[in-house]
Amino acid sequence: MKNIKVLMSGCKCSQKFYELVVKTVNEHGIDARVEKVDDIMEVMQYNTMTLPALVVDGEVVARGQKNESELLSLLA
Amino acid sequence: MIQNFADWLIYQACGLERATRLSEALNFFVYDTLKILLLLFLISTAMGIVNAYFPIERLRHFLTSHRLYGLQYLLASLFGAITPFCSCSSIPLFIGFVKGGIPLGVTFAYLITSPLINEVAVAMFAGSFGWSVTGIYVLSGILLGSIGGFVLGKMRLERHLSPWVVQIQQLSAQHNEEWEAEHLRFAERLPTIVRDAWGIVRGVLPYVVIGIAIGAFMHGYIPEGFFEQYLSREHWYAVPLSVILAVPMYANAAGIVPIVEVFVAKGIPLGTAIAFMMSVVGLSLPEATMLKKAMTWRLILIFFSTVALFIILSGFLFNAIL
Questions:
Q1: Helix crossing, B71-82 with B131-154: angle to 10°?
Q2: Share of residues in chain B with pLDDT > 70 (%)
Q3: Could you report the predicted ipTM of this complex, rounded to two decimals?
């Protein structure tokens, strides 16, 4: 099982991104647990300056907005 | 071409008479809306392309690995101008810079220019005031960021950072990893860039339309020179007053430019208008709340007042020379 984290700030665009990740995981039956990380101190440990960002198994795989097909190739 | 279409739509398709208040206002509305949306889309796409090739990680790497003899302020400010800015990215950027060991002043230079010069502001300015005023706006935004960053850097403000940020700063430089380059061909990236640009246009569309509608209405109904009696050059307090009034107006930046355009057409000096716009986009309450996570209120206050002061000075300068 994959461990997916969505690094985000309080704004609307990251919230949308989080929902898209959840949707993609559910629709394609990806075996993963999705977690929200919105505590800035925790977010900064991942060394990214662009939010939202996607972390899979402890590694940042995407920075900034992505669409569903891009997400699928990153997560599958 | 857009003007021809607006003329055709209002005078022929809708059959309105020329030179009435209503038809002039409608014509202005159709023309301005189309022109600004088109510009917004083109500029957003252009900025998207630039950004795909200059990720912010690359700037950080460059700033930390080169000795720049003072040019780093200008460089950070320039980068602030070409990267898109969303107030929600300001904290990760700020921390990321501090973590990379970049001096606070240089970080501030970036932080000042980044919201000041963004695709929406540039497109709205170009559409409403033309390219030469837009050029002045962009140039003074970059200078303001560099000088403001330099001055703030001299003030030794590190002690006003939040304690956890100070900790990060002390550990800095060890974490300065390389950015990871995305190896995608231009043709593969373009659809995403265009889609993002369209997203920006859609996001500000209601504000633009409402702003232009109000502007068009005022355009037709307020007499020439109406504001001159209240906010002319002789009243020295006009510039500072408009800068302060502008701070709470962030959410409607896109809608405010068309209204300011009419203000200028009806007698408000251009320098006052530019200072007002800079304050609208550059100093915002949502940004202050975001920055609170990394800075003390005292530092935010020093940061905002320094920037406000420079905006006011440039407003006076433009009123004197334009």
A1: 130
A2: 89
A3: 0.71
